[in-house]
Backbone:
């Protein structure tokens, strides 16, 4: 998933490219770049979000031709060098590209006399074009020749210095032209330029578009073909949400697929081992005295969940730290401390700052993140990717599930290496993890029932979430979701803590949401439920199949899956928060005052 | 509005209740055939035919469709969704898309396997005659079937449609059937508005076509390519077999030591096949499926997240999502008499059909033709036949 934008027209290109990249950010956001074209080609690229690129873009540029790209790497790190556009060494040709060039190794060998500066397959394209130009071919001939050499699926846009045209071609990757009054746009999808025009032309496979100040010429098999225009009738934001009203709901529903990706190829359910591709030597793990988790927000709760698992499965002491509060202190031995940073974006400033403190102290560090090649991965000793795919909604949902699943695999891995986790128990844990996607799907199938309950309680004065053990971080996360998107007063408590204070807040107007599954000591929490019911509060419970449901006012069930049952329960709380916020007509994907990844301390 | 790109309306709102328990949690178009759901086959065919704007009419369990297809980018098409809240028939479904289409548009069923060619044929016929006064009011693809009376049988006069008769009783008047691909113009909406309910209380497209044929002209386009339908549970196995035999599966995933996997199989990249297991021809193993050591799975469709444990033998069967087939469970193939929604089907050949989230205890034996519902628990060592309803707990002895 990457995004392409291009512009040729009467106005300065840069503003359109910049807006286009922001619009395309949902397709990926780990590096981005633009090239502005006149007699020379100026390239600006940056690893990180589009906003980081925007921070280094010049003001008041005059170029009226440009191309841009935002990348979400699946292979190879998202470094500045690997960001698009790519050029030939001489800055004569610039290219943005989505897709895969299957024969790039052959082509690269063939071009071995030329200088390559990235690890990408894309870079062969500008070199192929430049070589043809150098041997006297016209720009059109050079582009046709270069494209003819490519195998694979791609959408490509090519710019040549001193030549006021862009060339675009696609094969099995989408590419669309937009016809505005002031110029012509190119995009990997229409959201790139929907503010400027709704008159579009979808390129067919193999078609070559030549775009200049006068408009577009299209060629198929060397013959000119008509440019067929159509008018779109949809609003800018609706397209990429795939029929869902909000990204958040879409992402909640994506959890089974995201989790399957998280687990794919990593579980060995026969012998109870995991393959995480991290290098933690057994001698080091044996000498380990403590595992520290550092994180913020939802990731912090994922860390809390994981800490309980690591203590029980790997028999090592743990601590969980809010990243902004973190100090490496307390007389700890850095050589015997593993510090695990949990961050979706890999760019969270507080977490980065904490992990730098740990590194300075000499501790070994590990990052658990969704973003390949993000800043954190360059700071730590090892990284594990949660593979949840891009998350757009500010309120984290699918990444929490994938973080916990990944951290559970880390716990099993460490436990096995330290020789403290039996293969039988490990198999049991891994079977539970493998059951997770199917269990989450069952919760999603109950979507409508959750919506009804959420609507019933939406106007409550406050919401209290309780749970014990693994249910405690889920209570905290459930409350955070509701705060973030519905702006209601919500709090999560360890169930046993209620009577030590918070019980004073409980009234008939404050529903209590309880996790009563495996891993949460449900029978003990039942006593706390009686306490709140005695104060007139209704109790909504998420229960395992073996927990009696008579006691609670409304019960949702989770299928049997051991230590991840509380994680499955959390999906109910996600849906609950969503439907409460929905009833109140909140700005669910962009809650007030919040940003997706917080890159300031 | 000339020059506006033709869009295709794909009907995917229906439940497919005959296919229960598989359609309890997903609409029929999301049933997997080979490497992808039925609906994805349709969307790919539309895209290959060069139509890049698709309006999906969704309704029953629409989350499943929306989560899977998103905005259509991965298929190189722009998808928009129109919701049919109540499933009141195919004509009613098309009516929902009225604001999303241009002067001319195609309509396709979202649950038939077709080739791009039939879409191109209908499009050419629809657009080719675009003059001030079109020669016909609608275009419809027809094909031949060996069992015409299962479908809408079409009477033709030359290339004009005279009448469609839905599932005629007794001898079928012809072997030509409605292929479920239509080309319409805006005035079809008027015809839909004037068409009454069918006997079953729904508003059906064939009734609308009959009305158009009666008052004007409906042009038939003959299509001889692949046309496959899943109207009964066991059709899913034969259709899957045909698609995989044509080489439409992909073998990825993890295959452990000593396991044998036929190359006429679809193995998802997130699926695993355990040691010395055998996966035979005509089998689909979806995402996160795990086949245990020494198990045998043949000519079967296994939905996502299902587990088939060590030593189990599963032949000609459909295993729903998140099902656990316990150790050494046996589901052999054979002929059986099966009752679906009150209709008796004799000599049907399949092993078993297991609904989502069901747990078959170790050592159980299912007799051929067994249909077990959604979320059933079967005690270990049970021998069972016939039909088991949803949410039942079957104890042994």
Residues:
């Amino acid at each position: 998933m990457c995004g392409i934008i291009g512009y040729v027209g009467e106005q300065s290109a840069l503003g359109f490219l910049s807006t286009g990249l922001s619009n395309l950010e949902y397709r990926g956001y780990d590096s981005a770049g633009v090239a502005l074209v006149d007699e020379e080609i100026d390239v600006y690229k940056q690893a990180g979000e589009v906003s980081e690129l925007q921070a280094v873009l010049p003001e008041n540029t005059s170029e009226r031709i440009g191309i841009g790209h935002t990348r979400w790497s699946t292979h190879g790190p998202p470094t500045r060098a690997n960001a698009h556009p790519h050029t030939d060494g001489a800055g004569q040709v610039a290219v943005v590209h989505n897709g895969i060039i299957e024969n790039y190794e052959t082509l690269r060998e063939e071009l071995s006399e030329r200088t390559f500066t990235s690890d990408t397959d894309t870079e062969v394209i500008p070199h192929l074009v430049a070589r043809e130009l150098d041997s006297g071919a016209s720009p059109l001939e050079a582009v046709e020749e270069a494209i003819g050499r490519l195998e694979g699926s791609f959408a490509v846009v090519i710019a040549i210095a001193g030549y006021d045209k862009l060339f675009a071609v696609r094969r099995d990757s989408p590419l669309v032209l937009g016809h505005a009054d002031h110029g012509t746009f190119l995009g990997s999808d229409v959201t790139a330029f929907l503010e400027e025009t709704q008159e579009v032309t979808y390129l067919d496979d193999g078609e070559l578009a030549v775009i200049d100040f006068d408009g577009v010429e299209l060629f198929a098999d060397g013959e000119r073909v008509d440019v067929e225009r159509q008018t779109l009738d949809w609003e800018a934001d609706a397209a990429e949400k795939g029929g869902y009203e909000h990204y958040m709901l879409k992402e909640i529903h994506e959890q089974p697929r995201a989790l399957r990706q998280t687990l794919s190829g990593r579980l060995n359910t026969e012998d109870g081992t995991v393959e995480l591709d991290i290098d933690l030597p057994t001698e080091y793990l044996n000498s380990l005295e403590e595992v520290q988790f550092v994180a913020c927000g939802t990731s912090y709760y994922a860390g809390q969940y994981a800490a309980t698992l690591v203590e029980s499965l790997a028999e090592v002491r743990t601590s969980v730290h809010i990243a902004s509060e973190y100090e490496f202190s307390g007389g700890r031995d850095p050589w015997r401390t593993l510090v695990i940073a949990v961050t979706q974006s890999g760019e969270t400033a507080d977490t980065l700052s904490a992990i730098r403190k740990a590194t300075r102290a000499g501790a070994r560090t590990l990052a658990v993140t969704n973003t390949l090649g993000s800043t954190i991965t360059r700071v730590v000793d090892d990284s594990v990717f949660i593979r949840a795919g891009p998350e757009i909604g500010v309120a984290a949902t699918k990444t929490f599930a994938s973080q916990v699943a990944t951290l559970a695999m880390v716990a099993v891995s460490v436990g096995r290496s330290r020789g403290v986790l039996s293969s039988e128990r490990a198999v049991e844990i891994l079977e539970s993890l493998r059951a997770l996607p199917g269990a989450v799907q069952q919760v999603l199938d109950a979507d409508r029932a959750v919506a009804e309950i959420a609507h019933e309680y939406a106007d409550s004065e406050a919401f209290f979430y309780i749970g014990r053990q693994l249910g405690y971080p889920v209570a905290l996360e459930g409350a955070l979701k509701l705060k973030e998107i519905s702006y209601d007063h919500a709090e999560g408590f360890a169930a046993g803590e209620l009577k030590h204070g918070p019980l004073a807040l409980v009234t008939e107007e404050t529903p209590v949401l309880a996790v009563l599954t495996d891993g949460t000591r449900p029978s003990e929490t039942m006593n706390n439920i009686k306490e709140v019911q005695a104060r007139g509060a209704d109790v909504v419970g998420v229960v395992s199949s073996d927990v009696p449901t008579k006691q609670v006012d409304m019960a949702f069930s989770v299928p049997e899956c051991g230590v991840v049952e509380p994680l499955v329960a959390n999906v109910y709380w996600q849906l609950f928060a969503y439907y409460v916020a929905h009833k109140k007509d909140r700005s669910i994907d962009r809650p007030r005052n919040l940003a997706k990844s917080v890159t300031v301390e | 509005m000339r020059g506006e790109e033709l869009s295709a309306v794909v009907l995917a709102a229906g439940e497919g209740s005959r296919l229960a328990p598989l359609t309890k949690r997903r609409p029929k178009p999301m049933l997997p055939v080979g490497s992808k759901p039925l609906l994805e086959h349709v969307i790919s065919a539309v895209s290959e035919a060069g139509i890049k704007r698709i309006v999906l009419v969704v309704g029953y369990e629409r989350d499943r469709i929306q989560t899977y297809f998103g905005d259509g980018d991965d298929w190189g098409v722009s998808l928009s969704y129109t919701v049919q809240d109540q499933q009141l028939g195919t004509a009613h479904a098309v009516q929902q898309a009225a604001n999303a289409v241009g002067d001319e548009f195609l309509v396709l069923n979202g649950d038939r396997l077709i080739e791009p060619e039939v879409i191109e044929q209908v499009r050419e016929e629809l657009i080719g005659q675009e003059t001030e006064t079109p020669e016909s009011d609608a275009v419809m693809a027809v094909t031949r079937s060996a069992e015409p009376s299962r479908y809408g049988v079409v009477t033709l006069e030359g290339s004009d449609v005279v009448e469609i008769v839905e599932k005629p009783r007794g001898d079928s008047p012809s072997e030509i059937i409605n292929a479920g691909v239509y080309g319409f113009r805006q005035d079809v909406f008027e015809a839909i508005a004037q068409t009454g309910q069918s006997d079953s209380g729904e508003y059906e497209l064939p009734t609308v076509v009959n009305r158009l044929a009666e008052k004007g002209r409906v042009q038939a386009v003959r299509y001889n390519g692949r046309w496959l339908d899943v109207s009964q549970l066991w059709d899913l196995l034969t259709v899957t077999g045909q698609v995989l035999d044509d080489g439409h599966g992909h073998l990825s995933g993890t295959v452990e030591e000593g396991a044998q996997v036929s190359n006429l199989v679809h193995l998802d990249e997130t699926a695993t096949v355990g040691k010395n297991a055998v996966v035979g021809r005509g089998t689909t193993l979806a995402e996160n499926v795990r086949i245990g050591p020494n198990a045998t799975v043949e000519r079967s469709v296994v939905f996502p997240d299902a587990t088939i444990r060590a030593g189990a033998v599963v032949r000609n069967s459909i295993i729903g999502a998140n099902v656990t087939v316990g150790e050494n469970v046996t589901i052999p193939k054979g002929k059986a008499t099966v009752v679906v929604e009150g209709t008796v089907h004799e000599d049907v050949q399949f092993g078993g059909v297991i609904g989502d989230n069901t747990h078959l205890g170790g050592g159980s034996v299912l007799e051929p033709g067994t249909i077990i519902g959604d979320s059933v628990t079967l005690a270990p060592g049970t021998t069972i036949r016939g039909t088991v309803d949803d949410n039942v707990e079957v104890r042994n002895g």
